[in-house]
Amino acid sequence: MYKKLAELYEECSSTPKRLEKIKIVSKFLKYLSSTDKDVLYLLLGNIYPEYDERRIGISHQLAIKAISKATGTETKKIIHEWKMIGDLGKVAEKFTLHKKQSTLQSHILTTEKVLENLRKLPELEGIGTVNKKLSLITELLTSASPLEALYLIRTLIGDLRIGIQESTIRESLASAFFEKSKETSEKIQKAIDKSNDLVTVFDIAKKGKIKELEKVSLEVGKPIKAMLAQKVTTFKDGFKEVGKPCAVEYKYDGFRLIIHKQGEKVILFTRSLENVTKQFPEVVEYILKYIQGESFILDSEAVGFDRKTKKYTDFQAISQRIRRKYNIEELQKKLPVEVNIFDILYYNGKSQLDEPFEKRTELIKKIIKNHPYKIIHAKQIITGDEKRVKEFYKKALKDNQEGVMMKNLQSPYRPGRRVGNMIKLKPEERDLDLVITGAEYGAGKRHGWLSSFILSCKEGKSYLEVGKVGTGIKEKSEQGISFEELTKKIKPFIIKEKGKKVEVKPKIIVSVTYQEIQKSPNYNSGWALRFPRFTALRPDKPLSEITTLKEIEEDFKHQKRNYQYG
Ligand code: ATP
Is the pLDDT reported for residue 429 higher than 80? Predict the structure, then answer.
């Protein structure tokens, strides 16, 4: 019954303590039957395992319409209330309560029905999709109690707010079915990493046999999360993290491709587990032609290059290849890619995850026939000498790449983890000084405060938007500049308010770092900063000295992109 799940959500959200949450979830897991196991997806706000591309993806707007329809409340009223409370779930709860009191209707909502309707949402396509989605959601909301409506809405908009992560479920599985220990947790985690599916792990864990969990294996064709790197700023620190000697590789400026092969079938996934096989037919061909083995999973970075000059291009130049669904052949000719293989996770029926990196590298070298500008083993040296790393780093930058990766030779591959045995080193990011020209009120714990700020640069006497920042601003003022402080500073300069958005007189100047500048139709400057991060208020700067449009364009030309697709 969905009621039970809603109560579980509520119990979890009422305690900030991790251990309490684990206790609550583990009790729930003990009584969860195998037939209801898909409820576990809902616990994390999903409807399928993480590797599955299908997501609920409902906009706030549609959720508002559904609440309106199900409770007979005007949308205007809902939006007003949302602005006041800052949580659409709570708004749904409130209006459902009003309705229930007046109609005394009651229905029973089952988790099967919830899953059934939610799973229909991503399948809908074409004309009338919005209305079909609306009726699927309204059907659920009409049968929901106020508490159920709260969590249904939060699930739909992807903001469950109960503080349950994959790690909470891992610990809950450990405490529900095993003697708790660090080793048990690690074994469960490994099974989760390999299967990428909590329900599979739950099914095995329920039997209480830890040995069974060890049998969970990688599956060719099922996407696996990529291992991520930590960052250092000096070669010395790099060696401190990964030891001497270590492997040093180019940090290619392209996008990550995880390659699966079984027999004649090749599947390519991005870092966000998106299947992009169709977009890269030549890569499929390279894999089949130049890499030996019946089955394997490889980790790699694809980079673009200029066919004539053979110079490597930046990520921006080839990014359109990832999304393009038509004229693939033409784009393939125009924007060729070279695949740089840097890791191997599985080979001929055997997981390589626990093999030391050194061994995995040997295996790559053995099975790959290097074909520059098609497919190669990533450029690598093995050294303990800082000078050599520095030379290699300079060469990488000269080759238009981002920097270097330093890797511990003994380390295993840890899917989905940001690990200290793989380090990235790249040039420092540059600061821009921009002025705030707009903002938006936040939700949840940030309600009542402006929490997202529109940044603009200067072009003659006008100001042109280049992006939005929310990152880098603190929740509490003891930690730095807080949302509350910034809101107070901005309020006197608000010119116009529309819904949650405000227009602001250009007065407040801030410094931000960013990862990349992109061309963008979304802002009137024609540019967008990717991942801008607030670093400081700049009351010392006059408006006349903020970053100009021309400087942004210059930065774009010279940037060493740090952004990776996905
Ligand atoms: P960044 O923006 O610095 O790439 P990130 O969070 O996107 O950070 P990280 O995991 O921190 O990604 O950095 C590693 C990324 O670098 C990988 O995701 C991969 O796409 C890319 N990369 C390029 N060359 C290599 C290499 N030789 N080994 C591992 N990763 C590489």
Answer: no
Residues 377, 258 within the same domain: yes
Known active-site residue 3: no
The verdict on 398 and 450 lying in the same domain is no
Cβ neighbors of 184 (< 8 A, separation 6 or more) are: 174, 178, 210
d(CA 259, CA 300) in angstroms, rounded, equals 8
Do 454 and 399 lie in a common domain? no
Question: Are 243 and 377 in the same domain?
Answer: yes
Number of CB atoms found within 10 A of residue 517's CB:
25
For a pocket test of ligand 1, which of 224, 251, 380, 533 has the largest count of ligand atoms closer than 8 A to its C-beta? 251
Cβ pair 512, 535 in contact under 8 A: yes
pTM of the model: 0.76
Pocket of ligand 1 (CB under 6 A): 226, 228-229, 249-252, 256, 271, 301, 342, 378, 405, 424, 515, 562-564
The alpha helices in 291-433, defined as continuous H runs, are: 315-323, 328-334, 357-367, 386-398
As a whole-number percent, the residues of the chain with pLDDT over 70 amount to 97
**Residue 326 alpha carbon to ligand 1 centre in Å:** 28
Query: What is the Å distance from ligand 1's center to 303 Cα?
Result: 12
Q: Given pLDDT bands bounded at 50, 70 and 90, which one contains residue 561?
A: very low
Residue whose CA is closest, atom 14 of ligand 1?
A: 229
- Residue 185 near residue 177 (C-beta atoms within 8 A): no
Mean per-residue pLDDT over the chain, rounded? 92
- Predicted confidence band at 104 (pLDDT cuts at 50, 70, 90)? low
Same domain for 289 and 357, yes or no, is: yes
- 522 compared with 430, residue with greater pLDDT: 522
Q: Which of 156, 185, 209 is the last residue of a domain?
A: 156
Of ligand 1's listed atoms, the one at least distance from the Cα of 380 is: 27
Q: For residue 55, is it within any domain? A: yes
Distance 254 CA to ligand 1 centre (A): 9
Domain count, the chain: 3
Q: Which long-range contacts (CB under 8 A, 24 or more apart) does 176-182 make?
A: 176/26, 176/27, 176/29, 176/30, 176/205, 177/29, 177/30, 177/205, 177/206, 177/207, 177/208, 178/205, 178/208, 178/210
For residue 141, the domain's CATH number is 1.10.3260.10
Query: Domain containing 115: what range?
Result: 45-156
pLDDT, one tens digit per residue, over 92-103 is 999 999 886 666
**CATH code for the domain of 464:** 2.40.50.140
Which of 65, 90, 190, 251 is labelled catalytic? 251
Of 156, 178, 194, which residue constitutes the final position of a domain? 156
Does one domain contain both 283 and 420? yes
161 C-alpha to center of ligand 1: Å? 29
Q: Is residue 355 located within the same domain as residue 437? A: no
